[in-house]
Design a protein that fits this description.
It catalyses: Endonucleolytic cleavage of RNA, removing 5'-extranucleotides from tRNA precursor. The chain is an alpha/beta fold and about 575 residues long. Among the domains are: about 190 residues, Serine Threonine Protein Phosphatase 5, Tetratricopeptide repeat (Alpha Horseshoe); about 160 residues, 3-Layer(aba) Sandwich (Rossmann fold). The chain contains 22 helices and 13 strands. β5, α19 and β6 form a beta-alpha-beta unit. The radius of gyration is 30 Å and the shape is globular. The N terminus is likely disordered.
């Protein structure tokens, strides 16, 4: 596929705005232009003990109290910062742990130095011929050199001299791949006139483009007076596929930039209709635009966006949070006041003093989730790849004829939490501390744990069995289905201990709503071990008792958001909050 390279204007002055194109440079394949860099964050985290069982409330509270002594020295240090120590899966916690255990430098290879210096000014045909001769080992020098320019964000005029050289050698013909890569640089540097010229060439020579070229042209046209032609390109994409979230984002941003809010909102609704999760910058654009809008109609649209964040457990970034705050405070006559704050372990907002929503499921939600997990994870999941129907039935009968448990422990998982310690001793320490609180404990183990060796001492295991109920599965069995089954059947008060985040089992659930309920239940029931002193105290991580989601009471909003300077992993939740309330 080729195009005649004619009519490209001379290199215009660079725009001074920041680079907008978010595509990964340096790839020769055109598919790079559609690669979605914005992953959906699956939220997973560790939690500590909190029970609602009346018969064991006192014992549970004693256990939690023993975990609190490590935090007392920090209390009262600042009214602007929560006195509670951050939980293990707070945003940035995993990053800090990785920095405490840096990888070994012994096998790290030194960085490869780039000995080739790209031209910084346009070259003529003779100069390009000489450079190509110097790199004659490159099978396709023209595509290779412009790919290097993309990596380094070279100026458009240098790239244009490559195209002029190629065109001179090929009777004015420039290959499609080369033209698209040149378009990439034009869009990156916001060279509007060049973008339009490439657009005209492509439109004249080809009735259909591949998706990468459509994406670049849409992004390049949205800030020009021909922005509506980007909408026509979006319609062309729809004829063969569902446009990407980036395509919709660009068109929405263009419509808002040109003050056509109806087109922008219709595109947003269309995007949601395809079950596509919008980019956060798309949602931010509506709030930025709303600062100049008056009336309840647009205000209701923005509150719908906030509820969308809530229902999908999405978190705005810091810049987005500032846009939300600015919009609320700009609404005439509403007297909203916002502040950035944190929430105490008790669930009380340090900004306004109100208590945010509880993490615990309602009885209806619990029964709904229990049924779904039983059907889709335990009965209908893939557990039989690691166990047998007979063993699962044996375990179900075991649970049926035992009283409800307060704590269910993945014995092998917990025993391996401290690699330098003897595994049977770790398990004994954990079970002993729980048993002292008069808690009914179930330990799920493997049959090999009963064999005497340096890691598993028989006398340790005998002590464990005197203090807890035990179920020993086959050595090849998967523990998680047993753990989930026992915990759910024991009731909403029952907690479980494992460092497994159970993402595979969460993925077995049929829809996003059920997966969010599972994660919410997990937050209120999964107990983490922070530290262990050999032969004595085990410190348990405190459990969050409040839900980290966007929430409102009508006269207030509490919005958790991502701190720009903290890297949050997919199984972590933000610790920063935007508190908004009406001034009376």
């Amino acid at each position: 596929m080729t195009f005649y390279f004619t009519g490209i204007r001379s290199f215009p002055k660079l725009w001074k705005s920041n680079p907008y194109l978010g595509l990964g440079p340096g790839h020769s394949s055109l598919s790079l232009f559609l690669k979605d860099c914005y992953g959906i964050k699956n939220q997973e985290k560790w939690f500590s003990l909190k029970t609602v069982s009346p018969q064991n409330t006192k014992a549970m509270n004693l256990l939690v109290a023993k975990a609190r002594y490590v935090r007392k020295k920090d209390e009262g240090s600042s009214k602007q910062v929560s006195a509670d120590s951050p939980h293990m899966f707070a945003a940035g916690a995993a990053k800090k742990r990785s920095q405490m255990n840096p990888p070994s430098k012994e096998h790290v290879l030194p960085p490869v130095k780039n000995i080739f210096q790209l031209p910084t000014k346009p070259l003529n045909s003779e100069e390009w011929d000489k450079l190509k001769e110097d790199f004659k080992e490159k099978a396709n020098f023209e595509n290779w050199i412009i790919s290097q320019m993309i990596k380094c964000h070279s100026s458009v005029d240098v790239a244009k001299s490559v195209l002029a050289w190629v065109a001179a050698k090929n009777n004015g013909i420039v290959g499609y791949d080369l033209l698209v890569k040149y378009l990439y640089l034009c869009v990156f540097h916001k060279q509007t006139s060049e973008i339009i010229d490439v657009y005209e060439i492509m439109k004249a020579r080809y009735k259909r483009l591949e998706s990468g070229a459509y994406t670049l042209l849409i992004r390049g046209l949205i800030h020009t007076d021909r922005w509506r032609e980007a909408l026509l390109l979006l319609e062309d994409i729809k004829k063969v596929m569902i446009p990407s979230k980036k395509n919709y984002n660009d068109c929405i941003q263009g419509a808002l930039f040109h003050q056509d809010v109806n087109v922008a909102w219709n595109l947003y609704q269309e995007l949601l209709g395809h079950d596509i999760v919008p980019m956060l910058e798309t949602l931010k654009a509506f709030f930025d635009f709303g600062k100049d809008m008056k009336g309840d109609q647009y205000s209701n649209k923005l509150q719908d966006i906030l509820l969308y964040l809530r229902n999908n457990q999405l978190y705005p970034g810091e810049s987005f949070a500032h846009s939300i705050k600015t919009w609320f405070e700009s609404v005439p006559g509403e007297h909203w006041k916002g502040q950035f704050t944190t929430v105490q372990q008790s669930g009380q907002c340090l900004g306004c003093g109100k208590t945010v929503e509880s993490i615990h499921l309602s009885s209806e939600e619990y029964e709904f989730l229990k049924e779904k997990i039983m059907r889709d994870v335990i009965d209908g999941g893939d557990q039989y790849k690691k166990t047998t129907p007979q063993e699962l039935k044996r375990f179900q009968n075991f649970v049926k004829y035992h009283p409800p448990f307060d704590i269910v422990i993945d014995g092998l998982n917990v025993a391996k939490m401290f690699p330098k310690a003897r595994e049977s001793q770790v398990l004994l320490d954990v079970v002993s501390q729980l048993a002292k609180q008069n808690l009914q404990v179930l330990v799920l183990g493997r049959k090999h744990m009963l064999k005497q060796n340096s890691r598993w001492r028989k006398d340790d295991m005998e002590k464990v069995q005197k203090q807890a109920s035990f179920f020993f599965a086959d050595n090849i069995s998967e523990d998680d289905p047993f753990l989930l089954y026992a915990t759910l059947h024991s009731g909403d008060h029952c907690k479980f201990i494992t460092k497994d985040l159970m993402r595979d089992h969460k993925a077995c659930l049929p829809d996003a709503k059920t997966q969010r309920l599972f994660f919410k239940w997990q937050q209120g029931h999964q107990l983490a071990i922070v530290s262990r002193h050999p032969g004595s105290k085990v410190t348990f991580q405190h459990i969050l008792i409040y839900d980290t989601v966007v929430q409102t009471t009508g006269d207030s909003w509490h919005i958790p958001y991502d701190d720009d300077v903290v890297e949050r992993y997919s199984y972590e939740v933000p610790t920063k909050w935007l508190c908004l309330h009406r001034k009376t």
